[in-house]
Amino acid sequence: MKKTNCLLLLMLICSMAIAQSAGNISDPNKQPVSDGYKPSSVNQPGKEYPQVNAEGRVRVQISAPEALKVQLDIGAVKYDLVKDENGVWTGESAPQDEGFHYYQLNIDGASVPDPGSLYFYGASRWGSGIEIPATDQDFYALKNLPHGQVREHTYFSKVNNSMRRCFIYTPPGYDQDLQKRYPVLYLQHGGGEDETGWSCQGHANLIMDNLIAEGKSLPFIIVMDNGTWRMPEQARPRQGERPAGPWPPEGWADGFMNTLLKDIIPMIDAEYRTLADPQHRAMAGLSMGGMQTRVITLAHPEMFSHVGMFSGGSISMEDVDKSPAFKEKVKLVFISYGSRELENPRRGPWGDPAENTQKLKEAGMNTHFYVSPKTAHEWQSWRRGLYQFAPLLFK
Amino acid sequence: MKKTNCLLLLMLICSMAIAQSAGNISDPNKQPVSDGYKPSSVNQPGKEYPQVNAEGRVRVQISAPEALKVQLDIGAVKYDLVKDENGVWTGESAPQDEGFHYYQLNIDGASVPDPGSLYFYGASRWGSGIEIPATDQDFYALKNLPHGQVREHTYFSKVNNSMRRCFIYTPPGYDQDLQKRYPVLYLQHGGGEDETGWSCQGHANLIMDNLIAEGKSLPFIIVMDNGTWRMPEQARPRQGERPAGPWPPEGWADGFMNTLLKDIIPMIDAEYRTLADPQHRAMAGLSMGGMQTRVITLAHPEMFSHVGMFSGGSISMEDVDKSPAFKEKVKLVFISYGSRELENPRRGPWGDPAENTQKLKEAGMNTHFYVSPKTAHEWQSWRRGLYQFAPLLFK
Hints:
By secondary structure, the first copy, chain A, is of the alpha+beta class. Helix content of chain A is 23%, strand content 26%. Chain A has nine helices and 19 strands.
């Protein structure tokens, strides 16, 4: 036993105090570094790198004594690292926008996660993430106030004939007043992400806990499921080619729409204390999830009364003309983008989102258009989108 | 908008159908490879590598065109990979025991996670894991039957003056019969692991769902918190030295004991529908968590009636003599090990676990001793430990 116990206890010596993958419970022992770089708030417990400075530059460091070339790959740019006499590579990026960014390291041609960071699912992989402190980060900070829960919910989907899982946010007090029933927001991730995105990267739970504690939002349930859409093999364009026909193709959102309408909503209404009517049911999503929200709520306006799309297109008058019940039944249309997404004229299959939203308002709908300052197609835009959207819901 | 949408939708093309980090929802499209190697069940969605064959060998593959040396680091052995003409490195390990193993890749001296695997917290880092299919894997398989939930629970700890989180397993039916109250098992991870271990690597939730569905276990709540213990800086032995004085040092478990007794248990009894008495309260843990269970239940036998230690020592007659209330009040002592841990005589600070457990039985206590066949100090031993332990609880 001695040998095992020693091994074991030497492991204990290395073990670090709590510091967690929610990314919000920071290690108070982390010390700022002399030149203003500090460990990222989403580092693994006890890891000194990656670091961030006040300009938003990212500094990474990794020991790779025999490597020929090591790079930091962030924001679609690769930055060369420099090796010291001990074989430790260090390097910095240009300033990054506030908020969360995915990144990877490249070691002699291999793209790998940074062993210092926590990992997040995005860009169709589990990989590294970093947090550039934002001026408004207080709205998603972990505070000592009543917290809701995020529940991993496993279920059988008849539509897909398979087991699936979703995450359910139940607001503070859900387990105390067992008579109370709640509205529900169905909240979808983007392409290449999954059902973990809105709580891990998006901090949807903390945003809601803070809004509810301040009396700015009503408490409601949030359902975060997996809306991943994969194009049928035969329809996929070859690399570098443009897809043939309309894009996205007709019917692309049908799979998730069926799962949502036939499996997820009935299950949630059966197993949670919901207000199970369209007046108390919202759908929103980011990027691909916003596009799904558009298709699904236009096709089924009898199911939803509040609609949100974050960096995922907008609703046009043409859409509404084709779905008259949408105009009649939907009480709120919320559209948001990051400001950097709007820097170039944005005219695509669904038109300019600001113009579209203004026209809906002029036609008598309750619309809101929000622009997140100085952010792009990234999580800080979507956190802010939810923060603006939630207080408008179910009122 | 066009540019963004195209980028976005090309990402969608890459996105894979659901396949999840719980590690149990496998992608039905994964095809076996010709020489008997198949993708690991805990691969990232759509990733073909790492793979496992019937002998339990692990095959990894990574593109690293400019690398000089790439190794697979598993089971404390490093295996060289071989580079092909495209710069893709491939290699295999010796056969591994059934069950879950942590591993890393080594690229020109850098120890990094494999970009193909899901990631797990162990060895004091988030890193790669692989699953060697086990002959008895059915007991932790994801099945179409009633499932409990795993809830992320955030709370303020007065003892630590900080925010913490734990995971709570609530059994199937918890949200249906709102009058029913449940016993509670406090279940601890090992050194270098955290509160995610028992559900992510251990599949405690699936083990319970399956046992409950088969009528083999009563339903109960499981609380999985973070028991990480860090030795005070001044007391740490230097690398390579043996610790001075008794090991582990007196009082090493006091920190978590205080958190458990003063914060966690009162919170759980206040916020969940528990049977809040010692007859319906159990504590168990693996490795370091077993050692904590020993110290805490011997010090507070008035709090717990059922005790489990998986690869984490045992309870001796000397222990019981010093804590007479333990013998009087504790209704079950369960001790387990992996068979490979017992291959060498195991006599350490707490004596031989089989002998100790036998002596307690002879002294009139209800004890169980279980040995997991052909496994070492690894998760398969602990999954099996929980599977044997749970049916004995609260009966």
